[in-house]
Amino acid sequence: MTAIYPDFYDRFACKAGDCRHSCCRGWEIDVDGESAAYYRALPGTLGDDLRAALVETEDGCHFRLTDDERCPFLRPDGLCRLIRELGEEALCDICALHPRFYAEVGDAELCGLGLSCEKVCELLLSSSAPLRFVAEDGESMDFAALLCCLGLKAGVTPLRFVPVPSEARYAEILRRLAATEPIDKAWPEQIRALEACLSDLVENAAEYAAVCDRARYDRIYQYILFRQLERAGEDGLSALAAYAGLSTEFVFMQDALLGADPEHLRRWSEQIEYSTENVDRLLEN
Ligand code: SF4
What we know:
By secondary structure, the chain is α+β, with helices and mostly antiparallel strands. It is 49% helix and 12% strand. The chain contains 14 helices and eight strands. A hairpin with a 4-residue loop joins β7 (132-135) and β8 (140-142). Bound molecules: iron/sulfur cluster.
């Protein structure tokens, strides 16, 4: 199996204490069986704290979050107590893996970094060059060549982002995003605030389309599509492209209104990409 990576993959390094949207907050942290057994056997104060934090359910183990939904081992300075006291090898699988993802397409393994991580958004958007992917044998390819390499025929599927700022389209995008399962209370408010300024959104987006760095949105569009390529056989490439187009347009409309900011992409990702149910809903039609 050939592993294929986006070209910025090796530049990823967790921002740790400098991260404003730490992945150690707001998510339930599942603990794999091997790590849970190691934690249970650990002596000393940290072992006691680990045993107190582990919750066992019929679905497996997880850490009990604090009242403000933080991992109990996230220190006030934003660093991980387990890494500081035991080293990275003590992390459970999910903490060691995040934000990496892996997907099989044919006999290739697509390896990526998830956009819910602010560092990954910064890396993706730090360049205006066309997005490139690198196979483990060193072959470098653009997005069209990647599809070809995976045996996926693009046909009429657009490979670049084309903004369509119109009231009908933007109202439809916001309606569909409002119908996704909210990750938090702020999500419906965010959508309502955008709906309340629909005509400004469209006007700003039309002006922005003429002056913005369009390559930025091609990178977003292709990367969103890249993450879903494992579904191409089941859902079809054109449905995935429509999903990526709608999602990129959502980021684009906020950038046009509020100024280009990687946070618009990160926020979209944590709400949509990290919920299979929400991806399914957006792919429904
Ligand atoms: S979101 Fe990314 S940068 Fe922030 S703590 Fe998690 S892995 Fe590190």
